[in-house]
Design a protein that fits this description.
Layout: H1 6-18, E1 28-35, E2 38-45, E3 48-54, E4 79-80, E5 84-85, E6 91-93, E7 100-103, H2 111-122, H3 127-131, H4 142-153, H5 158-162
Antiparallel strand pairs: 1-2, 2-3, 4-5, 6-7
Length: 164
């Protein structure tokens, strides 16, 4: 999970190991054998050969983003074949509207914000209504409300803008 946060890697790895999953990293698979009802994987690592026994085998050899057919170029979203969508830390709205079409959020506790953005998109709740919703303070989700406030300020008349 090298593209994920180190803490997330550790949490997932520990949970899997607690469930009895043996995780072998930085190894070359020599061969796979079936021994009665078990599977046996023989791997080579810096320390020599190792045998790992189990009832199932899960092999992870990397990730490639599956972006084919999404039409990202047509809507101006940059992507890279190996790295995926290029993140620009924005919320995208329908032109001349506060309706959210998508968002990229990369931050500590981004999950606090993602749920709110997804709900707003699914139920067509605009940034204006998000701004008028009470949010717990201080949390990362407060940033979404501030985004709504920022959108509402774009609709102010010049006279009212001068007061801020």
């Amino acid at each position: 999970m090298s593209r994920e946060e180190d803490d997330a890697d550790l949490i997932v790895q520990q949970a899997m190991q607690k469930d009895g999953v043996v995780i072998v990293l930085d190894a070359k698979v020599i061969r796979v054998e079936k021994d009665s009802s078990d599977r046996l994987v023989v791997v080579s690592r810096a320390g020599g050969e190792e045998r790992v026994r189990g009832d199932q085998i899960l092999v992870g050899i990397g990730r490639t983003p599956n972006l084919d057919g999404l039409g990202l170029e047509a809507v101006g979203v940059a992507s890279h074949p190996q790295h995926g969508v290029e993140v620009d830390h924005r919320v995208y709205c329908k032109k001349y509207s506060d309706q959210i079409l998508g968002a990229t959020i990369v931050a500590a506790h981004a999950g606090d914000m993602i749920g709110e953005i997804v709900m707003a998109m699914k139920h067509r709740i605009g940034l204006g209504k998000i701004a008028s919703t009470i949010h717990p303070y201080p949390t990362q989700a407060e940033a979404v409300r501030k985004l709504g406030d920022q959108f509402n300020r774009t609709k102010l008349t010049p006279t009212v803008k001068s007061l801020f």
